[in-house]
Every structure is written in C-alpha cells, then in structure tokens.
Amino acid sequence: MKNELTKVLVPIAFIVVALVFYFVLLGRVGIELVGTGEVAAVGLGIGVLLLPLIGVWIVYATIRAGLQHQHLARRIHDEGLDLDVSGLPRMPSGRVDRDAADALFQQVKQEWEADPDNWRNSYRLARAYDHAGDRSRARETMRRAVALEKLERDGNPS
Q1: Shortest CA distance to 110 belongs to which of 131, 128, 93?
Q2: d(Cα 115, Cα 17) in Å, to the nearest integer?
Q3: CB atoms within 10 A of CB 131
Q4: Among 24, 87, 94, 93, which residue's Cα sits nearest to residue 56?
Q5: pLDDT of residue 3
Q6: 94: exposed, middle or buried (C-beta count within 10 Å: 0-12, 13-18, 19+)?
Q7: 3-state secondary structure of 62
Q8: CA–CA separation, 92 vs 95, rounded Å?
Q9: Contacts from 53-58 at CB under 8 Å and sequence distance 24+?
C-alpha cells in the first residue's frame, strides 16, 4: 500500500511544484505588465494575473476530487463491492471490450435504479460509465456518489 501511495504521490507532488513555479512566473510577468501603466499592458497584465488564480483553483479542485474518489474506492473495496472486470474480454489497448462494458453497465444500472440514493450504487454506476467510455457521465455520477457518501458519513441519510 505504501509503495502504491508513493507511486501516485511523487508524480502529483512534482506536477504541483512545477505548476507553482509556473504560476509564480506568470504572476511576476502580470505584475510587470500592470506596472508599465500602459493601457494595453495593464489589461494584458490583469489577464495574465488571472491565469495563476484559475490554475490554483483547477489544481485544488482536481486534487480534492481525486482524494474524494480514492476515499470512496477504499470504502467500496473494504466492503467487497468493487466491480469485477477481471473476467471481461479486453481490447488490445487493455480497455474492457465495448460490448462487455455495455453489458456490465446495464447490470449496474439496474442495481442503481433499484436504490439510486445509495452512494455505493452511484459509485458502481460511475465506474460502469467509465468502463463503457462515457467519461462525462462517469464524472457526474461520481460527484453524486461523493455527495451521497458525505451525507451518510455526516449522519444525514436521504
């Protein structure tokens, strides 16, 4: 477990450090442009100063979502509710075969329809969407799973 954590955290830490360096450089350039006092340069400088702020927000939101998803994955694993895709046929790329992923999705969707307010079903549905290649619905459903799990954890089941 510790080795797996290191394999994930080291690249993330490296990327975050690189982004912080980049954001600082952008900030300096933005301040220099604003400092010239020229109308066009000030406008451009303000725009450049906004980039690091947006970047920091994106990094924060991405890391936060990743940690939340990891928390749910750990709970699902501990409860023995992982989606078992080990026996499904694979494409040469390693992804689950499309027809098999669609069949898995239909099965998991039926489970979700039986109890849509259970975060476990939403998590499993998000994973099924991912295996079926529908990333946008997978993200949307995973956000729902995170919110439902938080409600359960806070003692406010719906």
Answers
A1: 128
A2: 42
A3: 22
A4: 24
A5: 67
A6: exposed
A7: helix
A8: 8
A9: 55/19, 55/22, 55/23, 55/26, 56/23
Distance in angstroms (rounded) separating the CA atoms of residues 7 and 69: 17
Residue in the block written with tokens 């501990």: 78
pLDDT for the residue 132: 87
4-14 burial code (b ≥16 CB/10 A, e <16): eeeeeeeeeee
DSSP state of 43: H
| Chunked mean pLDDT (size 10), the chain, 158 residues | 69 88 91 94 94 87 90 93 86 86 90 94 94 91 95 75
Are 65 and 58 in contact by the 8 Å Cβ rule? The answer is: no
3-state secondary structure of 155: coil
pLDDT recorded at residue 146: 95
Q: In sequence order, what are the beta bridge partners of 90? A: 96
Render 68-114 in DSSP notation, one character per residue: HHHHHHHHHHHTT-----TTS-B-TTSSBPHHHHHHHHHHHHHHHHH
State the distance between the two ends of the chain, measured CA to CA, in whole angstroms. 34
